[in-house]
Design a protein that fits this description.
about 260 residues; mainly alpha; elongated
Length: about 260
């Protein structure tokens, strides 16, 4: 080969090495600015999806629970399965204060009664129960007994309660009078757990929503809330968050 031929061959080889090095660093085919943006968006989207699933279902505590005997008992409980795939029930679980309240048997028993739910649907009743003096008065048996009498009230039993303006103002409202005249409502308010739950604004606000009350009226939801395994899970925030998620619903429907 001539000297000139060798030089050309060396030059071609040198250019080839440079090209391989360039594409090794930049990638092939080369990506323009628009392409980089699209790839970055796709990678971010995938990362967000994985992150969301990790938080909800791949949380170690949730994973451990989903492999437990308690979880498998829930899967085999028709009422629990039906409730856990209900959007209304998941909305109940998403409200932490209401979730904690529903873990108490007295609260579940009270809210299972239509008269109690109807009473709590009324703004005047919820406003009355928001006042400590009213709840304190309703904790006393003689006050509740006096309220039980639609006519000829036993004012001696009410005298101390009526000395407080909040209680007088509450009783001045027809909706409150109607609610307190119902035995189911008085029996519910006789329980400390119920009064304590209704002392929380988040619980009262939740019960003001029609879909929440409808969910509590559903027999499957009440049966699910009576399930010991489910109540135990509700006491653990990570598990309650998982059960309130749409990913959890999809998982249950796939089983």
């Amino acid at each position: 080969m001539s000297v000139m031929g060798k030089r050309v061959l060396l030059a071609v080889a040198f250019v080839g090495v440079l090209g391989i090095g360039y594409f090794a660093v930049k990638g092939y085919p080369p990506v323009g600015e628009d392409g980089k943006g699209a790839i970055g968006t796709a990678q971010k989207y995938r990362a967000e999806q994985i992150k969301s699933e990790d938080v909800v279902l791949q949380n170690p505590e949730t994973q451990q629970w989903m492999q437990s005997d308690a979880f498998h008992r829930l899967l085999n409980d028709p009422a629990a399965r039906k409730a856990l795939t209900s959007p209304e029930f998941r909305a109940l679980l998403a409200n932490e204060e209401l979730r904690q309240a529903l873990a108490r048997p007295a609260v579940r028993e009270a809210l299972a009664k239509a008269e109690v739910r109807e009473a709590l649907a009324k703004a005047d009743v919820r406003e009355a129960l928001a006042k400590p003096n009213v709840r304190e008065a309703l904790a006393k048996a003689d006050v509740r007994e006096a309220l039980a009498k639609a006519k000829g009230l036993d004012w001696s039993g009410l005298r101390e309660a009526l000395a407080k303006a909040d209680f007088r103002d509450a009783l001045a409202k027809a909706e409150v009078q109607d609610a307190f005249a119902k035995a189911e409502v008085r029996e519910a308010l006789a329980k400390a757990d119920v009064r304590e739950a209704l002392a929380k604004a988040e619980v009262r606000d939740a019960l003001a929503m029609a879909d929440m009350r409808e969910a509590l009226a559903d027999a499957n939801v009440r049966a699910a809330l009576a399930n010991e395994d489910l109540r135990a899970a509700l006491g653990r925030p990570a598990l309650a968050e998982a059960m309130a998620s749409s990913q959890f619903e999809s998982y249950l429907r796939s089983k």
